[in-house]
Amino acid sequence: MVKRIVVGAHYGLRDWLVQRVTAVVMAVFALVMLFIVVFHRPEHYGAWKSLMSQQWMRLASLLFLLALFWHAWIGVRDIFMDYVKPAGLRLTLLVGVVLLLVGYALWSVQILWSLY
Amino acid sequence: MRFRIYRYDPDKDAQPYMKDYDIALEPTDRMLLDALVRIKSVDDSLSLRRSCREGVCGSDAMNINGRNGLACITRLADLKEPVELRPLPGLPVIRDLIVDMSQFFKQYHSIKPYLRNNEVPPDKERLQSQAEREELDGLYECILCACCSTSCPSFWWNPDKFVGPAGLLAAYRFIADTRDQATSERLDDLEDPYRLFRCHSIMNCVDVCPKGLNPTRAIGKIKDLMVRRMT
């Protein structure tokens, strides 16, 4: 069988843009965390717990984690596209990564909202 | 001066090997290509491409001490001994320092590197303003030596699908040209996870370009136009 080279999936721009936007979200969150650690110095378990269980902190953390998972999806897909050549294996790995990341996202919600 | 040169003749050699040369240079030998010509006068089995010997034709691109460049404009005085010479990485070796550039030119042709304009040409020429012409500076100077594309890991992994820095620089050269009317088709053609978006801004291309061009910036401008088109 002749091996045909197929390109022309006509996507990629959105993912490229999302990778940049999620990177900015993560950078902002990292700066906020740095600010909190430097200026408020939550030094014991209670201080961390009261910080992390505030509603705004939960939402910010969730936003950060979702940005992280989306960013990771694009990056890992890029790695598989570069290094995993058999299409069947690549698809299997990609589905595995999607399931894993969706699982992580649900798990993060559970963790963040179980703090009281 | 000492050299270690990659040798491989598929008709004779089972494996590629590195061959050492110790060559007495003349005072007029300034550039690496001068030394290679001198080596060739001693060992005429050494094969390499060269033509203009002044950095214009792009024939003598090779991997010099681990970095792609043109032998004819690489100063011998700047090279650490033994000078290790290998063919451009990532392309099939035909013999010694000569590689098969078919894949590279295939990608270049795929971006349709010619002006596409359906209007009847004027009597004399299609005029541009000075500012419009300046848009092409840093784009049209490419000599297609393949130093950039063969130093790009994304091109190594997907040479059949990723257009590569040289091809994308040429693509932007026509997108940026006010006389070209196919901008939208060109962007459509490039909007692909492999053709354009394999570029991860590693910037090896910028590092090695012997003409000092910046394919990464051109690729950025293509992405910029796509974002403007989408939003």
3D architecture notes:
The complex is a heterodimer of chains A (116) and B (231). Chain A is mainly α and 116 residues long. Chain A has a single domain, classed as 3 helical TM bundles of succinate and fumarate reductases (Up-down Bundle), CATH 1.20.1300.10. Chain A has four helices and no strands. The longest helix of chain A has 29 residues, at 55-83. The model of chain A has no long low-confidence stretch (mean pLDDT 93). By secondary structure, chain B is of the alpha+beta class. Chain B folds into two domains: 2-99, Ubiquitin-like (UB roll) (Roll), CATH 3.10.20.30; 102-230, Fumarate Reductase Iron-sulfur Protein, Chain B, domain 2 (Orthogonal Bundle), CATH 1.10.1060.10. Helix content of chain B is 31%, strand content 13%. Chain B has helices at 32-42, 102-110, 130-134, 153-157, 164-175, 183-190, 204-208, 215-230; strands spanning 2-7, 17-22, 61-64, 67-70, 83-86, 93-95, 98-99. In chain B, the strands form two sheets. A five-stranded mixed sheet of chain B has the order 2-1-5-3-4, with no helix packed on it. In chain B, strand 3 and strand 4 form a beta hairpin. In chain B, helix 2 runs parallel beside helix 5 (164-175) and helix 5 (164-175) crosses helix 8 (215-230). The longest helix of chain B is centred in the last third of the chain and has 16 residues, at 215-230. Chain B is elongated, with a radius of gyration of 20 Å. At the A-B interface, helix 1 and helix 3 of A face helix 4 and helix 8 of B.
